Amino acid sequence: MKVSEAVGRLLVERGVRQVFGLIGSGNFDITLAMVEAGASFASSRHEGGAITMTDAFGRASGEVAACSVHQGPGLTNTMTGLTEAVKSRTPLLLLAAETAAGATRSNFRIDQEALVTSIGAGVARLREPATALSDAALGLQRARDERRPIVLMLPLDVQGTECSSAAPPPAQPAVQLPEPQAEGIRKVADLLAAAQRPIVIGGRGALGAGAREAIEELAEATGALLATSAVAGGLFAGNTWSIGITGGFATPLAVELVSSADLLLSFGATLNMWSTRHGRLVGPEAVVVQVDIDPEAIGGHLHAHAGIVGESAATARALTRELDRRHQRRDGWRSKDLAERIARGGWSQHPFEEATAGDSIDPRTLSIALDELLPASRTLVVDSGHFMGWPPMYMAIAPDRGFIFTQSYQSIGLGLATAIGAAVARPERLTVAALGDGGLLMSLPELETVARLGLNLLIVVYNDAAYGAEVHHFGPLGKPTDIVRFPETDFAAIARACGLEGLTVRKPEDLAPATEWLAGDRGKALLIDAKVVPTVVAEWLEEAFKGH
Ligand SMILES: Cc1ncc(C[n+]2csc(CCOP(=O)(O)OP(=O)(O)O)c2C)c(N)n1
Ligand SMILES: [Mg+2]
Prior knowledge:
Elements lengths: L2 H11 L4 E4 L6 H9 L3 E4 L3 H15 L4 E4 L3 H4 L2 H9 L4 E7 L13 H7 L3 E4 L6 H15 L2 E7 H4 L22 H13 L3 E5 L8 H12 L2 E4 L13 E4 L6 H9 L2 E5 L5 H4 L10 E6 L13 E4 L2 H14 L10 H8 L19 H11 L4 E5 L7 H5 L8 E2 L10 H11 L4 E7 H6 L3 H8 L3 E7 L4 H7 L16 H7 L3 E5 L6 H8 L6 E6 L8 H7 L2
Parallel strand pairs: 1-2, 1-3, 3-4, 4-6, 5-6, 7-8, 7-10, 8-9, 10-11, 11-12, 13-14, 13-15, 15-16, 16-18, 17-18
The structure holds thiamine diphosphate and magnesium ion.
């Protein structure tokens, strides 16, 4: 058996269930071996799509998936999505064919290791036929343990040799972080016991198994309110004391409450410029405490008065135990009156001046109408751009990884592939992809993938025929904006040409066919081209440009 086949089989035996990718001569054999060993393969139409689908599959399922690409251009095409996955610490395995060490004149030759190292991905390599299986097993293990993408280089000459590799070492259970230090727990318990108005903020590091329950219990013991960073949106959905996302998308009530908290305790959230509005949401007297597995995250953006290096669930449980041991349970600021204010404090309950007129729909009205129309069990995916606040502000986010936000590299154009990866991971839930016209045009080839895979997917284009973020940034500065505005694109027609259903929406009534589509078998995904009013400008946008 060739190394390529033996390695493909091994990876499936070790738990890789899903492979995304795009096939060339360098990765044909290994990918086929994985399919024959029982993995499911979904081809993208551009490697930029494949890597982001792999990232999103991991975020939506908690599993490590693989992405398989050809050497050279197959790998360079993954760079933006791979950088997003690195910055988001998504464990995944990128299987990259590689020219043989001796093939120095190959057209495909580049220094692949230097390339991926430069963006912070880990590198593993099939060194020789005798070590190939151990090399591959270790690469997969590292993705899990280091919680980041590992690029497994597959030199063509090694792949093509008969496999002389001994059996690889058995799979190891994932590395467990040590229990949080007792001294840190005592110190933070002291701070919590003294707080009158604590708020707990859950971030990406609080999405793991058991963390939600453990944090909610701690909040209960301390009378704290619950908020999330954008990427963890929906984490505490359904909890009476959840005030939603903090930062740019926060409701006026959440802004008021976070600003008046006397203690902010984060779990796996960096408290960056987005979630704190450049620190302005943090009151001058507020005590900031961070819990994170990464020591460098503590105090990385804001001054932290205390920090605990530890896993979210274990640390939250240890804090609750310590408070219980001291008999220090309290109600904090959890009052009936506040519960009622929180229940009435959503964005949809805030009146705004309706801008729907003529041939375009107010993006807020569109979002509210969709929220009412769509099933509560949904995965919301949002691309980057000016429009991106409307969906998480005006549409409910379902608990349990109900919001997938590939925004750590702040790239536009990742939204569609993110939605595909999420829909493949959780086919039973409707995936809703909210995209800008610019972001969709950047990822257009993957519309064919949506149709081919028959995904349970609704695409909504907030179409202002512009790079709206740039229009709203540079327009008010008195600059001409012609270079960031475009003629109309008929996305419904493009969707139909790719095998989807297409619908153009200019007013709420135009959504009627979407109701029928939802009630039907959804055999074809639906794309809604919503021509949005281009002059409704999001308040958070100004914030975004402050750091630039
Ligand atoms: C890959 C990449 N290129 C350029 C940018 C700069 N950029 C940020 S938002 C944006 C406009 C996006 O347009 P669209 O998807 O239509 O959303 P809109 O802002 O119009 O709502 C651009 C070009 C970026 N973030 N990423
Ligand atoms: Mg736009």
